[in-house]
Design a protein that fits this description.
Blueprint lengths: L7 H10 L19 H17 L4 E7 L7 H22 L3 E9 L2 E8 L16 H10 L3 E7 L3 E9 L2 H14 L1
Parallel strand pairs: 1-2
Antiparallel strand pairs: 2-3, 3-5, 4-5
Helix pairs in contact: 2-3, 3-4
């Protein structure tokens, strides 16, 4: 079982930002522990169980991970993104099934969440402060990419990639900047 020890300012922030839809679904780790794939898988399984307990759809979890350690900011970002995407699927998609995948590919950690629900127009959420826009901002800060493919009546598939090393993230940022 994972336990949570967080600095006081972080606990206060968490309390200030907590609402009913997020209650009970926060991942738990001890401060200072290695943030490896075992802990990531455990946190994801905990999120899946919490979403199912709150009436969410059936979630199929597939993973192909071999890297042993992650940068803490990437670990936390992956957990937060998985949580948000599962929450969106549970709250909005009306899908009975969700596919969640985590894999390594070409120096990146890939996250995919797919549902077969009602879909939406991804451009319609551009002005919001949370949810998908929060995911976009977080991923951009860490040198990753987000692709959202959704069609009304066909469901939604969100693909996120994070560099596994800080050097890879810097290279991705430079490459993206040079294309703009």
């Amino acid at each position: 079982m994972l336990s949570r020890v967080v600095p006081k300012h972080r606990r206060e922030q968490d309390r200030a930002h907590r609402d009913d839809r997020h209650h009970g679904i926060q991942p738990m780790i001890r401060l200072g522990e290695q943030l490896g794939m075992f802990r990531l898988k455990a946190a994801v399984h905990r999120l899946i169980a919490a979403h199912r307990a709150h009436g969410g759809p059936e979630i199929e979890f597939c993973e192909d991970l071999t890297v042993r350690h992650l940068w803490p900011e990437v670990w936390w970002a992956v957990v937060a993104i998985v949580h948000e995407l599962l929450l969106n699927a549970r709250s909005h998609s009306q899908s009975k099934n969700v596919l969640l995948g985590l894999a390594e590919d070409n120096g990146c950690l890939c996250v995919q969440v797919q549902d077969w629900g009602i879909g939406f127009d991804p451009e319609s959420v551009r002005g919001q402060k949370r949810g998908l826009n929060g995911i976009r901002d977080l991923v951009r800060r860490l040198g990753g990419t987000v692709e959202i493919d959704s069609r009304q009546g066909k469901g939604t598939c969100v693909n996120v990639e994070f560099p596994l090393s800080r050097e890879t993230g810097n290279e991705m940022e430079i490459e993206r900047s040079s294309r703009c």
